[in-house]
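Submission sheet (multi-component)
Chains listed below:
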Amino acid sequence: MVDHDDTISSPASSSNLVDDSVDEQRTNDPCLGRAELVEYARDKSVVVSIGDVSRTYRVGGEVLHALNHVSLDVYAGEYLSIMGPSGSGKSTLFNMIGGIDTPTQGDVMIRDVAFSKLPRRLQARLRNRCIGYIFQTYNLVPVMTASQNVMLPMLLGGADKKQAAQRAAALLAEVGLDHRLHHRPDELSGGQQQRVAIARSLANDPSIILADEPTGNLDTKTGEQIIKTLSDMSRQRGVTIISATHDHKMLSVSDRVVTIRDGRIDNIELRDQLHIEIGSIEDHVPAVAESGIGEVNHE
Amino acid sequence: MNEPVPLNSGPLLQQLQDDTSGLSNRMLLSLAMAGLRVRLLRSAVTILSVVLAIAFLTYMGIAGSIERNVASSVVELERTFASNSDGDRNTSGTSSVTGALNDARVKHLNHEQAQDDANRMRFLLRRNGTSVETALSGSSTNTWLITMALLTCTVGVWNAMLMSVTERFREIGTMKCLGAVDSMVIKLFLFESAFQGLVGAIAGVILGLVVALTAAVLQFERFGWTRFPVDQLGKVVCMALIVGALLAVIGAAYPAFIAARMKPVDALRTEE
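Outcome: structure written.
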C-alpha cells in the first residue's frame, strides 16, 4: 500500500480498520462541518444517503477494503461527480448507490428506503422506477434496436407497448437520434450508443441517474457532447445525476465533486471552488493514478 | 445534516409496494421470440443439438419397432400357414362348392405368398445381422451403446443451453439494472429454451422418421413400408417432443437460475 501525506492516513488505518468505531471515522471526515458545505446543503432534500458504508472483498487470503466507512448525502437535483483514480473505491461506491452491489456494512438509503434491506422484487422495482443507469460500455441490449432498448425499462415497468414506443421515439429525438430508431447497437457509433443509453436512462422519469464513466470509451469531442446532452436533459427534468468519472470535462458541469481515495472520501469540492483549483487537480491526478488499490490487509 | 426525506409525496417504500405493474407474460414471450429471431444463427446451433438428439431417439424407437414388427410378422405368417393347412382339411366339406373352390384358390395363393414373405423376411433379418428370435426378445446387445449415445446427446444439449445463457450474463446484468425481477429473467430463458427444445424436437422427429424409414426400406425392402409401426408412431413422436423440450429446459434452467440470482455488479463484470 502507498501512503499519502493527507489527513486520513493515520497509523491505525492499515491494520484494524473494520473494528474502528463509527465515531472515530466520523471525526476523521475531512469535510465535516465545513461552512460552505453546510451552506450548500441548506434547504436541499436528500435523495441518497450513504451511511457509514464499508465494502470488503476477499481475494484469495487477502481482505480488500474497497470502501472504508464512507458517509455521504446526495441532494435532490444536484449533479454530483465522484472522482478518483482506478482502484480508489470509486466504482464500488458508485455501485452501492445504484444498488448494483450490496455493502458489507452500513446502509444506502434511497429517499426513505434502505436498499439492501428491500426484498429483491422491490429492489428491481426501485431500480426500474427511480434510477436510470448509464454505463461506460453503454450496455445496450445487442439484439434490440435503439427504440426497443429505450422501451425496455418502460415495458419492464408494465407500460403499454404503443405508448412506450411513442415515448422512446420522443426521447431518442431529444438526444438527436430520431433517424436511428430502428438501428441496432452494432450499427451505431459509440457516441450514438451512449445517447441511446441516456434516452434509456430517462425512460421511466427516474429521480436519480447514475452515470459510470459515461465518456470513458469516447473521444474528447463526442464525450463533451454526451456530457452536454446528459446535463441539459437532467437539468430540464430536475434529475439528480451521480457520475463516476476521471474526465475533467465532467467537472465543469458538476455542482459538487467528491474525491475518493483508498476507499475513503478524500475531499468534497463545490463548483465555484473547482474553477480555481482545476489546474491543480490536473497536475495531481497522474500521481494518484499510480497509487493502486485501496487498503490491503493480510489476515 | 438533513434527514432523508421523500422526494415525492408519500413514502417511497409504500409507493413501491403498491405499484404492482410489471412485464406481462405475453410481452415476455414476444421479447423471447424477438431475441431468438435476431440470434437466429446462434439459436440454430443450440437447436441443432436438440435436433440430433431427438432424431437419434426417434430413429432408435422406430427402427427397433420395424425390426420387431418384421420378426413378429414372420412368426405370425408361419403360424397362419400352419393353421391354414389344418383349416383346409376341416372346413372344405361344409362350404358351398363354388365358395370352397374360390376360398381354396385364394388360400393357395395366400399360402405361397405368405411362405415367400416369411422366408424373405427371415433372410432380410439375417442379412441385417439379427434373427427372428433376437429381434423379438428385444434385449438388444447394444442397449448400453444407445444409452451412452443418448447421454452424450443430453450433455451436448445442456452444454449448448449453458453456453447460450452464460454468454448473456452481461445482458442479464443490464436487464436487472433496468428493473427486471429474478423471475422474469428465469422465465425469459425458460420460454426461449422450451421453444428451442420444441422446434428442435419437431425437426428431430421428422429427421429421425425419414432416416428410420429410409433405413427400413433399404434393410427390409417393401416390408419396411408394410410393417411400419403406425400404432407406435404417436407414442414415439409424443415422447420425442417431451424429451426434447425437457432436455432444453432442464439444460437452461440451472444457468438461468444462477444468472437470475446474480448480483447485477457480478453479472455486469463478466466479459462479453
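Remark: The radius of gyration of chain B is 30 Å.
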